Amino acid sequence: MKRWPASPVISLFAAMLAALLTGSFFIFLNNRIIHGITFAEQRAFHLPLIAAGDALLLVLLGGLALLRLSPVRKFWRGGLADERMAAFRRLLDFPLEWFGGLLGLSLLLIFLFHAVEFAAGRISLGNLESAAKLAMSVNAELNIALMLAVLLYVFSRRLLRTQALRFQIHALPRNARRSAVGMLSVTAAICFVIVVTNCVRVLEPGTTVLHPVLDYLLVAGPYSVLATGIFALSISESRKELRLVADHLHRLSSGGRDGLHEMFPVIALDETGWLTGAWNQLQQRVKSEYEQVERNMKLAHAVQNRLLPPSPPPVRGAEIASVCRQSSDVGGDFHDWLALPGNRLCLAVGDVSGNGLPAALLMCAVMTGFRNEAAKGGSPGELLTRLNRHVHRMTRGESFVTMAVAMLETEGPAAGMITVASAGHLDPIHVKNRHAGEWAFSSLPLGITPDAVYRESARRLGKEDVLVFLTDGIVECRNDSGNLNGFDWILLRWSQPLQPDLPLASRIDAIMDELDGDYAPEDDRTLLALRWHGDDAARRCFALSGEYGAEMPILRETEAWIRRTLPGWPRLDDLLTVLSEMCLNAIEHGLLAETGKASPVQVHLSGEQIRIRVWDCGEREPVPAPETPPAEKWRRDPPRGWGLYLINRLADGFAFGCDHGIVYAEAVFTLDKQTREEC
Amino acid sequence: MNRLRENRHERYRNSAVTMTAFMAGAFVCIAAILYALHHVLAASRLESWQLYGWLIFAGGGMSALAFAAIARRIVRHHRELRRITESLESLASASRFGMLERLQTSSRFEPGELTDALNALQDRFAREYDRLEKDMRLAAQVRELQWSETPDRWGRWRISLTVERKPVDGVFLETMPLDEDRLFIAAGVVDGADMPAALAASALMMVIRTHGEPAEHPATWLDQVTAWTADMITSGLELNIAAVTIDESAGTVAWAVRGRAAVGMLRDGRTDMFGNAADGAGVQDAETGCNQIGDPAGELVIFPGSFSSAIRLSVSGDKEVRP
Predict the structure, then answer these.
(1) What sign has the CA pseudo-torsion A50, A55, A59, A61?
(2) Which parts of chain B sit beneath pLDDT 50?
(3) Which of A570, A61, A238 is CA-nearest to residue B16?
(4) What are the C-alpha distances in Å from A300 to residues A95, B96, B142, B192?
(5) Domain range for B174
(6) ipTM, 2 decimals?
(7) How many CA atoms lie within 13 A of A201 on its CB side?
(8) Which end of chain B has fewer CB atoms < 10 Å from its terminal CB, N or C?
(9) Per-residue confidence (pLDDT) for residue B3, from 0 to 100
(10) pLDDT of res. A383
(11) Domain A317-535: homologous superfamily in CATH
């Protein structure tokens, strides 16, 4: 619970005490200099009266402060929400009340003081000179009261501003509105009264102390400076509140998108407060408009995201990895893969002209069209030719789509044979023996003309060859200096040696992270890579997505492969259990929280052992496997806590490692001599 | 950027300094004039009370003049602030584009600076709106292009559309003559926020077009399409779809509806609803059936998702026209 801090109350009392003491001091000086009353005489008569007056003022004004600010204290001690505005108004009204209170009480005390003086026979009103002297004295005291009242008003307003901020009021009701014009005009008038009355007073004949001009300058000068100071203080306090609002607006207009709809708390009941309230009202309106658009965009993003494939299917002999990052919530880039009958894998990468929602509309249509057409069969060229007719019918030549389709034979004598057709898409990159080169195509994008025919080209991929498809967002982005990175940039990235052990996804992530770090995202970016290990490869690479059950295709593919390669191996069940536990660990402790991400999984069969590696998608510290069964944990939470213990018991070796900055878990199964020989 | 901001600030004056300088000047002038006046009046040997009377009168008069000038400035300053406040309030209650209007000012002080800051911020909002509006405009164009060209006639049937559409929404319609005697119509609405609904509808239209010839009964087709698009219909979206095959040779209309879609026949002034999946207690499951068209045929009405939109097929009597 927020509490009303003691400091403002203490500060208010301190300010009041200081004001009263200063006022008393000025009265003493005034009596001594102007009226020539000695300090001894003042101590005997004036001091007790002034002290009593000060004490009375302190009690009455202090009481006024406690009384008027009690709703504020009550609110901060646990008041209801609907009391907030009342407490806020009371707080901001208080300086004016204090000003009026001090002025009224001062007038009363001045009257009482002179009445006592009159009763004690110290003054008489019998002649004009005495009356004039009394008037001068009253004028001087009144001047002091006016000055102190204004100063106290300004200081209390400043002290209570921090409290007003704490209320976080963003709108001011019309009936709470005040105007600063009145108080500023009163302050100006008071300043004129102070200057004029003191100038006239010092011109009194027969009161020359040093020299008539010097005396005049010594009195009129300081009073003018004092009056100017009071006015300056008052107007600059008012301006300071306005400046806070102006600076806030400047910050918003030149800042980033964060905090663009930030509201500014009202700190005054006058024009500055009205302005702040009106501004907040506008901000609220703009914010609600934005939020509606943002909500829609998020939903649109979800619809589009659900169209994109979650993670590549387990493919014999091949490893697939891809990343698609839209420059806004929705975009026109897409990629897809489909496992087709006859041990064929169909890959597609596309880019719709334009970006944002218009591109996304077409992207959704083209992706669904691609899936339907791919399911009907045919080569990549035929598929694109059919799809082009649909796209043209849909866009009537007004918009176009670039797209590349590849069909990979994964088994049999044609395993590794890849056929590619491109519809005006960027040429794919073929990485062979650390040399990255373009696979050139020349064709029209989809949707330009209904009769376009797409030729295709075929190659046989060698072991560890990589084929990369990309969209123009990768090569056409500009760095801070405004330079395009170009095709050579991406060729260079793929020319760097890629270790067979390192998952393809890590290379793609590294490239995309480099782009995100150095280049402003102007367009959607998609990168899809395929690495061919060979259908007889001793390595199987998979991508594990963040949902329960995603491990099942990996287990099935691994089981079929091990049964084929090591028929009758007795530890297959153990290996599958370990693989399953490792995948589930990766899902539960990382992937579930990382929407849309996939972790690479590798099963590697070498002459002496089978090695399972599951990479981590986050940057977590690995948890050591327990040496003994976590019995206490089992009793408390039976189905949990088995994973690492089981892996440790079933596998011949289990460890966490780090490769190129990515953490992975690795389990090893050693093959016995007989199995090795059979293998 | 900071430099620019500083320059912008420098264009405006500090009202507190200006007014304080004016006050200080006024005080100096008043004090000097009063002293001079005192000398002049003292020489004219006036009575003391007369002398003070004149001095107070002169001081009061000069103060009143100076006060009037400073009060005028204070009033103008705050009137300008009130004007900005009123402008902001009217902007807040204006339409989306009205909100982006620029504020005007002639003040060389803080209100001017404030107006500039507000206008700069309005410009930012305007840029964001422009981007969104441009996107929406282009999206509307894409949707318009995607919209299927429906023939006016098919056989003896005249086809008329009353489809309530927004520039970007989830309405879709596809008319496919299967052969001489059969016409297939799929119409629907993806309910929900406009943008995501439009994305889903866009994908659905392509599914319908590339799916190939509909199966024997639209119900099978509808099941397949629903399965295909299940992934796209996320929470917040709802699919209403009607699939109808008119078979002239068999004299039947086979239909399948889902969501709030409905199919009916207007005959002899009354509506015979064939299928309305949302009929009853808001049932949302698919409903299918096959009805005889009858002779003379009535007006076949397909409601894609609400009764405000309809595809009407009425008998024109002219059998020769083929699309």
Answers:
(1) positive
(2) 1-7, 279-284, 319-323
(3) A238
(4) 53, 22, 16, 10
(5) 147-315
(6) 0.71
(7) 25
(8) N
(9) 42
(10) 93
(11) PPM-type phosphatase domain (3.60.40.10)
Phi, psi of A669 (to 5 degrees): -115, 120
Shared domain for B124 and B268, answered yes or no, is no
Q: Do A361 and B202 touch (CB under 8 A)?
A: yes
Count of CB contacts below 8 A, A vs B? Answer: 269
- The predicted pLDDT at position A404 comes to 95
Q: Mark whether B162 and B105 lie in a shared domain.
A: no
Which residue among B77, B97, B130 closes a domain? B130
Residues B125 and B163 in one domain: no
Report B:263-292 residues touching A (Cβ under 8 A).
none
Inside any domain, residue B139: no
B183 with B53, same domain: the answer is no
Report the chain A residue with the minimal C-alpha distance to residue B91: A282
CA distance B24 to chain A (A): 6
Domain boundary among B76, B96, B130: B130
Residue A668 has phi, psi (to 5 degrees) of -125, 135
Residues in chain A where the model's pLDDT stays below 50: 1-4
CATH 3.60.40.10 location in chain A: 317-535
Strand order across the A344-352 sheet:
A333-340, A344-352, A401-409, A417-423, A456-460
Residues B41 and B124 reside in one and the same domain: yes
Residue B86 touches partner A, C-beta closer than 8 Å: yes
CB spacing of B211 vs A372 below 8 angstroms? yes
Task: Identify the CATH number of the domain in which residue B224 sits.
Answer: 3.60.40.10
CB contact A545 to B (< 8 Å):
no
Task: List, as ranges, residues 181-200 from A with C-beta within 8 Å of B.
Answer: 181, 184-185, 188-189, 191-193, 195-197, 199-200
CB-CB under 8 Å, B194 with A200: no
Assess whether B74 and B43 both reside in one domain. Answer: yes
Cis ω before B296 (30° cut-off from 0): yes
Residue B141 included in any domain: no
Output helix, strand, coil percentages for chain B, rounded to the nearest 5.
50, 20, 30
The residue behind tokens 């492969």 is A561
Class of domain A538-679: alpha beta
CB contact under 8 A, B81 and A242: yes
Here the tokens at position A423 are 């519809």
User: Is the Cβ of A14 closer than 8 Å to some Cβ of chain B?
Assistant: no
Residue A282 touches partner B, C-beta closer than 8 Å: yes
Residues B60 and B24 in one domain: yes
Tell if the CB–CB gap between B59 and A366 is shorter than 8 Å: no
Are the beta carbons of A296 and B194 separated by less than 8 Å?
Answer: yes
User: Could you tell me the two tokens for A20?
Assistant: 């009263």
Q: What is the DSSP string of A581-600?
A: HHHHHHHHTTGGGSTT-EEE
- Please state, in angstroms and as integers, the Cα–Cα distance from residue A451 to each residue in A370, A386, A627, following that order: 18, 10, 68
Q: What is the pLDDT of residue A206?
A: 61
Least CB-CB distance to A299: which of B27, B86, B234?
B234
CA A533 – CA A546 distance, rounded (Å): 25
Which residue type does A492 have?
A: L
List chain B residues with CB under 8 Å of A373: 210
B44/A contact by beta carbon, under 8 A: no
Q: Which amino acid does the sequence have at B181? A: D
Q: Measured between beta carbons, which residues in chain A are less than 8 angstroms from residue B88?
A: 275, 278-279, 281-282
Q: Do B74 and A185 touch (CB under 8 A)?
A: yes
* Residue B168 domain-assigned (yes or no): yes
CA angle A482, A486, A487 (to 5 degrees): 170
What pLDDT score was predicted for residue B97? 58
For residue A566, give the 3-state DSSP assignment.
coil
> Quick one: which H or E segment has residue B188?
strand B182-191
Where do the CATH 3.30.565.10 domains begin and end in chain A? 538-679
